[in-house]
Amino acid sequence: MVRVSVLNYALKSMEFEYVDDHRFGKFVVELNGRLNKCGVVNSCFDVGVKEIEGRIARLLPSRQFGYIVLTTLMGIMDHKEVFAIMNC
Known about the structure:
GO terms for molecular function: structural constituent of ribosome. InterPro entries: Ribosomal_uS8, Ribosomal_uS8_sf. The structure is a single chain. The protein is α+β, with helices and mostly antiparallel strands. The chain has one domain. Helix content is 30%, strand content 18%. The strands form 2 sheets. Strands 1-2 form a two-stranded antiparallel sheet. Strands 3-4 form a two-stranded antiparallel ribbon. 1% of the residues are buried. The mean pLDDT is 74.
C-alpha cells in the first residue's frame, strides 16, 4: 500500500495502524512528544506546478516542519519528493 509507505516515511519511528472500516479506512496514530497534532485537509485541490510552493506555505506551519501528501501522475508522494523531481 503506497499510502502507508508515505505515512511511514513522514512519521518515521511513530506507531500507527490502519483500520479498515469497509468505507474509506482510517489511520490511527499514537502521538508522542515529537508530534502534537496530526490533521488532514479534507478538500482536494487541483494544484499546478507553479502553485505548489504557495499552497505549502499556506498549509504548513513552517518550511522545515510538516508534510503534505500529493497525488500525482507518478503516484502518491510527499511535497519534498515532488520538489526533488521538479528540480532535476
